[in-house]
Structure prediction request, 338 residues.
Amino acid sequence: MSARPEKILALQFKYFGDAVLLTPALRALRQHFSNGQLHLLVPGEIAPLFRHSPAIDRVWPMPRRRGRPLFGQTWPVIRALRRERFDRSVDFATNDRGAILSLLIGARRRLGFDDRGGFLGRRFCYTERVAAAAETQHESARLAHLLSGWGIATSSLEPEICADPALETAAEKLLPPDTIICHVASSRPKKEWPLACWIELYRLAASANRRLIFSTGIGPRERALLDELKRRDPAIPVLPPVPELELFLAVLKRAKLVIAGDTGPLHFAAALGVPTIALFGPSPAVQWAPFGQKHRALTGNACPCNPDEPVCESTQPCMAAISPRQVFAVLMKTLPSW
Prediction:
């Protein structure tokens, strides 16, 4: 345990799924500095994930827009963080943005990964650095490994977030009881299971009296994907758009099970304690699949595409190698009876 109460700031400037996989490390920080204060700095759109976390004393949302600096909006946040006079900061992303913010916020001890990339001198924004772990390690374990720089071990890699209990009634109006949510979209189209596979899974589940409902993201491309699914089979039930992240978390919390590709809602559901069936193709399940006994992962063929391209370039997409009957079999094994 820490000898005296300390004030610690954790930083994570990546995406939704990455933020959820950070929670085991945050839990370890909370346990180690049990008498201290733990603050978290994340992009504004991610902040709702942590608003009800018992591990976090305060969440700081930072304005962010891809491709455009927002100095006028970010500088007041940086000044407020400097006034907190943190004893320590730990940057779990260790990217250019996180490194600069770590330096500007000015904690006495600043921890980050010993990565060689980024702008010249990025590594010197930290007072302490830890060598990156093996690339094949699960992402939660990789993030927790950073804390070894302070002699902190992580006892469990299961993620954990909390939905707002005040939104339970609103969630009940959107999702019937004993319903399986199938999330069809991803931020990278190559991670999406083909619509024809979702339709066949729906028909298999309906024949076994399993209630499925289909969801997607709030962007135009994601909504168009769900519209196309509905056009191909008008009987398929779809979840109304839920633009508020906190309400969407409350809806996921009610689900009997969630089936999705490697995308944020998959990791939200797992962290909320909902069983999941994960469908993996371009990204390796060993690194990104939900951790714990409630979760199952199916993997397609090896992906031949350029990993930097968001769209599949293959005539035989790796995700299509996962058959609806495979998913249905896992579904029935996971939920043999209602």
User: Anything to note?
Assistant: The domain at 7-150 is CATH 3.40.50.2000 (Rossmann fold).
